[in-house]
Amino acid sequence: MDWIGSHLDDIWSLTLQHAWLSAVPTLLGLLVSLPLGWLARRWSWCYVPVVAGTGLLYTIPSLALFILMPLLLGTQVLDPVNVVVAMTIYTIALLTRTVADGLGSVPDDVVAAARAMGFGGVRRFFTVDLPLAVPVIGAGLRVAAVSNVSIVSVAALIGVQQLGSLFTDGFQRDFLDPIVAGVVGCVVLALVFDLLVVLATRLLTPWQRAGGRRAPDGDAAVETEVRA
Which residues cross the membrane (predicted)? Predict the structure, then answer.
């Protein structure tokens, strides 16, 4: 393992690049999935076409998608933007159903109470529906974030530098050390992403800790709004 000790700077640089290529699409995909999921939940006839349509995007092989991106975007083959856009598509495919189902998990009596208090559609979405859907969305986001860390490594096959480059380097030279470094780096990065999503979910759902065993605590959220 002397190779790893003498290449820590290179491994760290590839780790940062890998984190950027994984995190940015996760955030972009979440931002796009929120209105799509709301659309699917707002009008029932939209649910199947929106959820099924976005879900089918995940069936596109990652390598094929990476190769198609330069043709569709007019970018260079090695442009990291290709990977960001492709991974955003995968994130949307994973999160749209999660967002729609999370919004659908809000209890009907909570929705009725919010309407009775005069909450309009936009205000109810941001102050009642979306906060109560955070635990479900957070669970889906954990899957998407970890999945992105894994899939991004495939981009090494088209020459985009990140931890996956250590795999190709190791296989080409029949040298185990870079492969081990790449695997460990991906696992650690996935664990960090997962932990960050868990922490963000806990910060956005303080009533779950205050309310103890009650779930989904929708009444508590509405009561908070009433007091406000």
Answer: 20-40, 47-69, 81-100, 132-159, 179-204
Q: Report the alpha-carbon distance of residue 46 to residue 35 in Å, rounded.
A: 12
Tell me the pLDDT band of 214, cut-offs 50, 70 and 90: low
For the chain, what's the residue count?
228
pTM of the model: 0.85
Tell me how far the alpha carbon of residue 37 is from its chain's centroid.
Answer: 14
Rounded to whole angstroms, the Cα distance separating 88 from 92 reads: 6
* 216 preceded by a cis bond (ω within 30 of 0): yes
